[in-house]
Amino acid sequence: MCGIIGYVGEKEALPILLDGLRRLEYRGYDSAGVAVAGKKGVKTARAIGKVAVLASRCERKTLSGMAGIGHTRWATHGKPATRNTHPHTDCTKSFFIAHNGIIENHEELRTELTKKRHIFKSETDSEIIAHLIEEEYRDAQNLEKAVQFALLRLRGTYGLAVMPNVLPGKIIAARMGAPIAIGLGEGENFVASDAVPLLPHTRTVLYLEDGEMAVVTAKGHAVRTLQNKLVTRGAEMIEWSADNTQKGGFPHFTLKEIREGPEVVRNTLRGRLIMENGLANLGGLQNITQSLHNAKRIIIVGCGTALHAARVGEYMIEEYAGIPVEVESASEFRYRKPVLDKETLVIAISQSGETADTLEAVREAKRKGTMTLGVTNAVGSSIARETDAGIYNHAGPEVSVLSTKAYISQLVVLVLLTMHLGRERQMSLSAGKRIAKELEELPKKIEKIFAQEKEIKKLAKKYAKYEHLLYLGRKYNFATAFEGALKVKEASYIHAEGCGAGEMKHGFIALIDKNFPTIAITPETSVYDKMLSNIQEIKARGGRVLAVATEGDRRIMRLADDALYIPKTLEMLSPILAVVPLQLFAYYLTLERRLDPDRPRNLAKSVTVE
Ligand code: M6R
Questions:
Q1: Residue 410 CA, closest ligand 1 atom number
Q2: What is the pTM for the complete model shown?
Q3: Which of 377, 403, 405, 482 to mutate to test ligand 1, by most ligand atoms within 8 A of the CB atom?
Q4: Whose CA is nearest to atom 12 of ligand 1?
Q5: What is the fold, at CATH topology level, of the domain defined by 453-592?
């Protein structure tokens, strides 16, 4: 959700903070602000909307100093307004804070502090943190202790950066349920809500754990728990480069990341396929080899796009490895009382590795003694660290709020996992070899889909006028229907519904008329004829159909109003290809509606609060 950046070193902080905020904008773009500690104390600038607006308001002279914090906001408590924009401060302007998360006991703390004559300037839950520190500092007269005592009074989640006016050159960062990364440089150090804004400066990153607090200065850092125990964990090296987080000549991150599909498949597969044995070599599973061997049941959890990937994974694993699989939204799993045991494996899929519900689902599984496996893209993320074993996507940083390349890589990882589980169970050598060969062909096939980009653009022009779209798919492409619809809803605000084709007659068909077109995902698979019947039924009711079909399919050409084509592949791999034209279609629909696909309203890239 919100993005945080902090700098302390020997350079002017403002340009570093603004650059960091630009790179973090995908975490929230309701408003942005900075606080810089200079010779005349801490000065702030805040603005509603994009970081560019904030940058135009920042006077370099006033905001000069070598330490500072910045924040880009995704509003939870209090609407987007300057008064609600971080950094917030206390009554004496001694402590400036940037917070990501939700303080659940903020109302009672506010009442208590108001009685002690604290005056609040915002409607946010975050502001109480600054006042609490002020209150504790009065007694403790020690910054670290004041922050520590204040934090011990909070209930809820926070990723936090605190910059004092009283002791410049120091930032205190803390974490409880929302990520904080400390970037380690030479004569300078950083604090951030994720590693992306740190990449131009350093790739050496230390992630805080829940209940930890770091004191960061230009010369070093020290981490302690809130119970004052010294933490000596080492830093990690991030593989991503700063170039990966730039648009690289593309008008939007969304388009850049869709076009990275072929490269992403190659990177996800790199070094993992043993062609001659039809096997997948997944180093991250070494810890749990025996338990995987004994697994009798799998539950896959995730949210949004990751949940759709989970559904495809369910079909693959059941068909090829013969292990019963359940798929569940992480937000439900964490609150109901799932029956778990030692022979169950819980797989958590999350691009960011920080989605609050998915992380809590992992913790719930671990509390019950169940083995957990993370499929994440962000190295060192909370889910990557807290699961018993993991498989990284290697998709590179995904900046657009729309998850596109990460979805492709999640599906590829799930194929590899299916091979891994399947080959030691029921999958034959020839099936393993066939899948491995077809996986290697995917990048070229995705490139072929890109050749239709002009046609996709034209179709987007034609379909942008509709207010409703139905996405229909079956079996392996059941999830593709939901994923295609999600992309369109998120970015173009067209009402789109995913529907399993077999369910259509149980209700959805009532909506079909000439104003409610259907996108029918109809590659040549085992359910092709069933899909054709559905298309006939829609046509008979005056509905328009845009089909996603296999190249050379003449029957579809006669039946559907419009068609996009994907190359032939194995049925289990067809979702990896079928989603590509749908991602491009959603992108161009969004442009037709003159909207920004990188920054859809009300959304943030990483949902780190419930
Ligand atoms: O980082 P995660 O994969 O855990 O994120 C899960 C969802 O928030 C995410 O997929 C969301 O649905 C995307 N905006 C979809 O495009």
A1: 3
A2: 0.86
A3: 403
A4: 304
A5: Rossmann fold (3.40.50)
Name the CATH superfamily for 3-244.
Aminohydrolase, N-terminal nucleophile (Ntn) domain (3.60.20.10)
Q: What SS3 class is residue 303?
A: coil
- Measure Cα distances from 291 to 59, 324, 370 in Å: 59, 15, 10
248-449 and 3-244 share a CATH fold: no
Which residue numbers are catalytic? 2, 605
Paired tokens of 149:
């005592």
Domain boundaries, the chain: 3-244, 248-449, 453-592
Residue identifier of the C-alpha nearest atom 4 of ligand 1: 350
Q: What is the mean pLDDT of each run of 10 residues along the chain (610 residues)?
A: 93 96 84 94 92 87 91 85 94 96 94 96 95 94 95 96 90 94 96 92 94 97 96 88 80 96 97 95 91 94 98 98 97 91 95 94 94 93 94 93 97 98 95 97 98 97 97 98 98 97 92 95 97 96 97 94 98 98 98 94 81
CB 11 within 8 A of CB 66: yes
Q: Who lines ligand 1 at CB under 6 A?
A: 303-306, 350-352, 355, 358, 401-403, 486, 490, 606-607
pLDDT in tens, 158-197: 999 999 997 789 999 999 988 999 999 999 999 999 888 9
DSSP secondary structure string for all residues of 196-251: GGGTTT-SEEEEPPTTEEEEE-SS-EEEEETT--EE-PPPEE----GGGGS-TT-S
398-414 confidence digits (pLDDT tens): 999 999 999 999 999 99
Query: Domain 248-449 has what CATH class?
Result: alpha beta
